[in-house]
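Retry 2 of 3 after timeout on previous attempt. Resubmitting structure tokens to design endpoint.
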């Protein structure tokens, strides 16, 4: 079937997402289709066919675009991921669906409490500064995602590492922050949940590349990279191992559970 831009569905097809994102990136730079064609060594018609979803982007073209536009391997990752997904479905709900099936969840967060651990008030305060049009719906979706993980008969083992910034970055009022920190302490009391904190004194480390999730689903580890220009599930074993190594390095410098709880308690006192 011949596609055009109006028929693309980037919420369900990874290749459609790539096509739409390529056009967005090209226009944002003021680059013509002909100029992009010259960049990748092809004519303008190839660019047009990629952007209309008629043909898939080639990996070597993705690498050239990433390098020349300084995109930190954005299209390279997207193309590899699209090739791996034989069903060609890119559903934005994939993370929550995999969380609901996971037997183990590992999370690292740089600046905010992870969504799975947020109180309703904290979630609402966070959503209110973005482009969410229906706050109630967004909060309810987040709470449903939490329930799918924590309200199971056999909930997963959950290990969370927080950057110290998470404790000191106000989200909403002081009351909201106290409630959120108290919630983290309560979760940490559960036998299947542990929460640790990387202290300020750790300085710059591997975690500053961005937040990450590691999920064990059906005895297989997968990762989720939550980044502005390349968020998505990662299933390739070699790439997942890179995420696991980074998570382990962060864990090596995180405070143990006891001192981490003490930091959470001290942070609550800041919001009196």
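Retry 2 succeeded. Sequence:
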């Amino acid at each position: 079937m011949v596609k055009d831009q109006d028929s693309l569905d980037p919420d369900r097809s990874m290749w459609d997402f790539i096509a739409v994102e390529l056009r967005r990136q090209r226009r944002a730079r003021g680059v013509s289709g002909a100029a992009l064609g010259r960049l990748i060594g092809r004519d303008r018609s190839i660019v047009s066919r990629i952007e209309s979803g008629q043909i898939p982007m080639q990996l070597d073209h993705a690498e050239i675009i990433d390098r020349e536009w300084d995109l930190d391997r954005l299209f390279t990752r997207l193309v590899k991921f699209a090739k791996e997904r034989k069903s060609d479905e890119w559903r934005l709900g994939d993370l929550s669906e995999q969380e609901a099936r996971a037997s183990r969840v590992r999370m690292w967060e740089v600046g905010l409490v992870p969504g799975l651990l947020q109180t309703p008030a904290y979630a609402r305060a966070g959503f209110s500064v973005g482009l969410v049009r229906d706050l109630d719906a967004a909060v309810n979706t987040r709470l449903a995602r939490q329930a799918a993980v924590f309200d199971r008969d056999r909930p997963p083992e959950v290990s969370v590492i927080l950057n110290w910034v998470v404790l000191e970055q106000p989200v909403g009022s002081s009351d909201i922050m106290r409630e959120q920190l108290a919630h983290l302490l309560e979760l940490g009391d559960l036998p299947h949940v542990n929460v640790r904190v990387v202290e300020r004194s750790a300085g710059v480390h591997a975690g500053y590349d961005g937040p990450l999730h590691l999920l064990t689903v059906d005895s297989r580890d997968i990762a989720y990279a939550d980044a502005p220009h390349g968020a998505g599930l990662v299933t390739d074993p070699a790439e997942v191992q890179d995420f696991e190594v980074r998570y382990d390095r962060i864990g090596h410098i995180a405070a143990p559970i006891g001192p981490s709880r003490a930091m959470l308690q001290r942070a609550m006192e800041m919001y009196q």
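Attempt log closed. The CA atoms of residues 119 and 180 lie 6 Å apart.
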